UniProtKB/TrEMBL annotation:
Family classification: Belongs to the PHP hydrolase family. HisK subfamily.
Reaction(s) the record says it catalyses: L-histidinol phosphate + H2O = L-histidinol + phosphate
Enzyme type, top EC level: hydrolase
EC numbers, comma separated: 3.1.3.15
GO terms for MF: histidinol-phosphatase activity
Name assigned to this protein: Histidinol-phosphatase
Domain PHP, chain residue ranges per copy: 7-228
An example Gene Ontology CC term for this record: cytoplasm
The entry's keywords: Amino-acid biosynthesis, Histidine biosynthesis, Hydrolase
Length: 300
């Protein structure tokens, strides 16, 4: 199989939801796999989420940040400790290109705190993410008004199609409402949690919503991430290209060393078939090979 593309979305012990993260072991794993480059994009979350079912059994790492009413308050990112760890790893693994980074949750909702964090970090790679959706209940229903749900948790209270539509609408608002990130992470995030009893998830059912979000992102000249936690459907990469998208990155979204690079080579092959190519340097974004004029077919 072909070589690995760069892994542009990786978490370590500095991410609050990665109890088994380990930056140094992740670097060792990257060298072992032959990854050209890696970006440590730790979580920065300024929002507070409320679990739909507060009595749900939670893993230790999550319960320590959750109050009895199910309100989760993520801790702040230790930027200083993180940057010191990256510096140590760069020294220890000189052959590996290590990018600093951060994964911002809904930066368009938290502009002041996001700007303060970015000033502090001087990050090489900034991912923009949606993890929380805002759902507007129809007037006259029991819970009229706007409610926030974790996108995975939302399936407990909303129809599966509604979760995906709400999610993609928020992605479009993120794309147009924030200019601080370089790459849109996991446009298919809610598909990870798609309920099995809802049948297979066909992206064509949401084509209009995907295209709208992709067009909004392409209009800002930024990159789309091919996240491999679930394989991104190739048709979405095709829509990205058709809507004017020029650049792509890859992300395993690994939260522990053993998951690094998972699915990246398969994703690279898929993206290549859709007309994207690596840049000059192994850590560059991948770019479209857009054909500007269709050559005439050869005469028989
Ligand atoms: Zn994420
Ligand atoms: Zn992530």
């Amino acid at each position: 199989m072909a070589s690995y593309p760069p892994d542009g979305h990786v978490h370590t012990q500095f991410s609050w939801d990665a109890p088994f993260g380990d930056m140094e072991r992740t670097c060792a794993r990257a060298v072992e796999l032959g990854l050209p480059s890696i970006a440590f994009t730790e979580h920065a979350e300024f929002g507070i989420t409320t679990l739909v079912d507060p009595d749900r059994e939670l893993p230790d790492w999550l319960s320590q940040y959750t109050d009895p009413d199910g309100v989760i308050t993520p801790p702040a990112l230790d930027v200083e400790g993180y940057l010191a760890s990256v510096a140590r790893c760069r020294e220890k693994f000189p052959g590996l290109r290590i990018l600093t980074g951060v994964e911002l949750s809904e930066p368009h909702w938290h502009t002041r705190r996001t700007a303060e964090l970015l000033d502090l970090g001087g990050f090489d790679r900034v991912l923009g993410s949606v993890h929380t959706i805002r759902h507007t209940e129809e007037p006259g229903t029991a819970a009229t008004g706007v409610r926030e749900y974790d996108a995975g948790d939302a399936y407990h209270v909303l129809a599966a199609e509604t979760v995906v539509r709400d999610y993609l609408a928020e992605v479009a608002r993120l794309a147009t409402g924030s200019d601080v990130f370089h790459v849109l992470a996991h446009i298919d995030y809610p598909i990870r949690y798609w309920p099995t009893d809802a049948g297979p998830c066909d992206p064509h059912a949401f084509e209009e919503e995907y295209r709208y979000a992709l067009r909004a992102l392409a209009g800002t000249g930024r990159a789309l991430e091919v996240n491999t936690r679930v394989p991104l459907h190739p048709v979405i990469v095709g829509w990205w290209r058709e809507e004017g998208g020029e650049t792509l990155t890859f992300g395993s979204d690994a939260h522990f060393p053993e998951n690094l690079g998972t699915g990246l080579r398969e994703a690279a092959a898929m993206v290549e078939a859709a007309g994207f190519r690596p840049g000059a340097h192994p850590y560059d974004l991948w770019r479209t090979t857009r054909v500007t004029a269709v050559p005439a077919p050869p005469r028989p």
